[in-house]
Amino acid sequence: MDMSATDFAGLFTPFQLGNVTLPNRIVMPAMGLSRCDDGIPGEAHAAYYARRAEGGTGLVLTEGVYIDHHSSGDNPSLGRFYGDAALAGWRNVAAKVHASGGFCIPELWHVGLIYKTADTMTGGIQVFRSELGQVSPSGYIAPGEQVTDGMTQPQIDEVIAAYGKGAATAMKLGFDGVEIHGGHGYLVDQFMWSALNKRSDRYGGNARGRGQFAAEIVAECRRQIGPDAPIIIRISQWKLLDYNAEIAETPQELEELLAPIVDAGADLFDCSQRRFWEPTFAGSDLNFAGWTKKVTGKPTMTVGSVGLDRDMMASLGEGQTASCNLASLEELARRFDRGDFDLVGVGRAIIAEPDWAHIVRRGDLHDLKPFEPASDLIAQSSTDGRFEEV
Asked: Which of 134, 212, 215, 232 has its CA 20 to 30 A from that of 328?
């Protein structure tokens, strides 16, 4: 395909995110590596993230890191954000990314009440593990499956405080801000999703109530890190349990849901969908990031199969290479230039080609490499850790 007429210049203009001036609009989104030893990132992690910054990526978001709460997550191969050794490893990650010319933000994560990811992804028997003491808004592990009690106010306060502690820790370690994982069916998203949130207090009952827990987390993080450092929150319609799930069925519901998060001080919404070019609501071609920006007035990032011809589930589940899709890049540029979103999360494509940003900026698109599941770092984590659509 001849892409000579496509102008990608807008993707390489600066962007002000809080007190950080990003050199371009290209972001490496959070993707689990499942390579930690007891939750501790090693030198290989730092080199991996730094290499993407060296390749021209303006902002690097780390894999999700478990906050300091007893049930935030139990997979030792995934990063944790507490304990001296783990924090020293993350300090090294931030330093190496900065030395390579990029900015770096950790994704703070609490899984909430979930089945083991391996069981979810492989079709194995799903077992509720009561010994983990997992928490959730209403005790539902899946729609219609209530297995425990919902969170009490002291439990809610405890988790909010743990997020705030994580944000303060991030700044002490030299990171440039924080991202809160509020998507994909994990704890924050469980509050947003009406299928799992059956509360009648201020954390439920309607869309605005379902957004209150996320808003209070953002507010606590803002209190801990001050008015200027950026706070990003990742949101999604789809869940690991249900790719067709929705936190909002209409633009009006989405606006009501996200309004308290905006009021609390979020700087940007990281809008995750499986294929960025698909519309979110009938009657418009706007994607999830486009609609979120429209109803909130806040900057957004789009993510989902950018530059590739198949989504994560297809490439990993079938063991097939995700080839470069130059037509999708043309569509990406069209939507960006229209103002639908402000940043672009490039996931698997930037794993396959660390110099993705440099290559696109030069216009040498045919030099981009395909994503091959057998050779990448996160493919092997798809059945024992986080599973993201990027």
From this structure: 232
